[in-house]
Amino acid sequence: MSIEIKVPVLPESVADATVATWHVKPGDKVSRDQNLVDIETDKVVLEVVAPEDGVITEIHCPEGETVLAEQVIALVEAGAAAQSAPTAKAEEQAKSNSGESAKGESVDIKVPVLPESVADATIATWHVQPGEAVSRDQNLVDIETDKVVLEVVAPADGSLSEILHNEGDTVTAEQVIAKFAAGAGAAAPAPAAADESDSDDDVLSPSVRRLLAEKDIDPAKIKGSGKNGRITKEDVEKHLKGASAAPAPAAAASTETAPVAMADRTEKRVPMTRLRKTIANRLLEAKNSTAMLTTFNEVNMKPIMDLRKKYQEVFEKKHGIRLGFMSFYVKAVTEALKRYPEVNASIDGDDICYHNYFDVSIAVSTPRGLVTPVLKDCDQLGLAGIEKGIKSLALKGRDGKLTMDELTGGNFTITNGGVFGSLMSTPIINPPQSAILGMHKIQDRPMAVDGKVEILPMMYLALSYDHRIIDGKESVGFLVTVKEMLEDPTRLLLDV
């Protein structure tokens, strides 16, 4: 039976998405709940998993292609066909397991060269364990600095023979953190361990791992119904329903069972990552060291939505990228910064530093926390240049490949909570900047237009600013300028 693989339903205010990474190719066997592809929007990455065990027969949309909600992007042949479809990968693995290379060369796994001004780093996550078979360029470990995550990959096919530094250890540049045995013979896994490892995190799909972590559930307590005993999302949900139903009979039990009920009240203590600690310190610094106020307004998004609908196809054909909302936001902010230089300034001691360039930070949510990469010289970029710049930064943020140069600087920040459904918020300033603009969910609301009620797609704007440098007049004027630019986007092109 052939099953269609579709783009998930996209968040509010997100018109389209991009196929970021295919983790499989036609002919590959897949297991139920295995992640097939990452679908990327302006700020979030959505995983599309296999609905059944099967074989990928067709991929309709390659990486980089723009797609819409519920668009068919691939086909999976489910059922018995999955068991009979041979793959070159399986044959290669069998050949590897035959033990053609009995001896493996020992290689040191080292911490990469760290960015400028970074003295040390922390072992964040080991993705493999000693004795586990890995392939060339497979990610072995994540090394985390204050804002950048560095991946250390396998230098060849083989296996990890020894881990010298565990997760949480502080390490320095080019320090040896593990020993690696190269060669096919070193990569051969022990067959007897296969069934025992089915409950390990390594064989769980990302969606199942995330659900287990959120609910703090030990996978060993769940009986898997998937292939080879693999745990599926349905197994976890069934376990949760059983756990929630369990307290009912316990209430009628004797008082002797009371200590057992109390034993379920457990806690989990996890140390902050370096990135999370940096974010926490910067947010606290912003609250304590600035006189922060927030002013609000709202904008009618219909003109921009109509403009995108009219020119989307020709824009994409010419520039090779979809026309999103964020490029309009950046353009409107850049024009407003030109008119209100106080918002584009920062306090340095007793001085006010006015910037004659326009570098805008774009808040991006990543698996490890919020980062604000910088899109530089926005006044010199057109809508296409802005869209390409934002996409590049978002991809690097998702993969943990942002450089220190891309994360430092910036005169003003834009954050779009609307992709998560936020209707209104008070964003926190990103020091040493003096202001931040929050965009929100686009929602149809009844509005009075020329004495009549019309249903319009409205969005709230929130400008948080440092009152030490920006007065109310400038903050309101700035926000009104952004509103006017978005409600009449032709002004962005005419510079009026």
TrEMBL record:
Listed A to Z, the keywords are: Acyltransferase, Lipoyl, Transferase, Tricarboxylic acid cycle
Q: Where is this region: Disordered?
A: 84-107, 239-260
Domain Lipoyl-binding residue range list: 2-77, 106-181
Cofactor (UniProt): (R)-lipoate
Catalysed conversion reaction: N(6)-[(R)-dihydrolipoyl]-L-lysyl-[protein] + succinyl-CoA = N(6)-[(R)-S(8)-succinyldihydrolipoyl]-L-lysyl-[protein] + CoA
According to UniProt, this protein's pathway is: Amino-acid degradation; L-lysine degradation via saccharopine pathway; glutaryl-CoA from L-lysine: step 6/6
Q: Which GO terms describe its molecular function?
A: dihydrolipoyllysine-residue succinyltransferase activity
Question: Per the record, where are the segments of Low complexity compositional bias?
Answer: 243-260
Q: Does the keyword Transmembrane apply?
A: no
Q: Name one GO biological process term.
A: tricarboxylic acid cycle
Entry superkingdom:
Bacteria
Tell me the ranges covered by the Peripheral subunit-binding (PSBD) domain, including all copies: 203-240
Its top-level enzyme class, in one word, is transferase
Extract the CDD domains matched here: lipoyl_domain
Q: Does the keyword 4Fe-4S apply?
A: no
Q: What do the Gene Ontology cellular component annotations say? A: cytosol; oxoglutarate dehydrogenase complex
Q: Which family, according to the similarity comment?
A: Belongs to the 2-oxoacid dehydrogenase family.
Q: What does this protein do?
A: E2 component of the 2-oxoglutarate dehydrogenase (OGDH) complex which catalyzes the second step in the conversion of 2-oxoglutarate to succinyl-CoA and CO(2).
The name this protein goes by in its record: Dihydrolipoyllysine-residue succinyltransferase component of 2-oxoglutarate dehydrogenase complex
Q: Which organism is it from?
A: Planctobacterium marinum
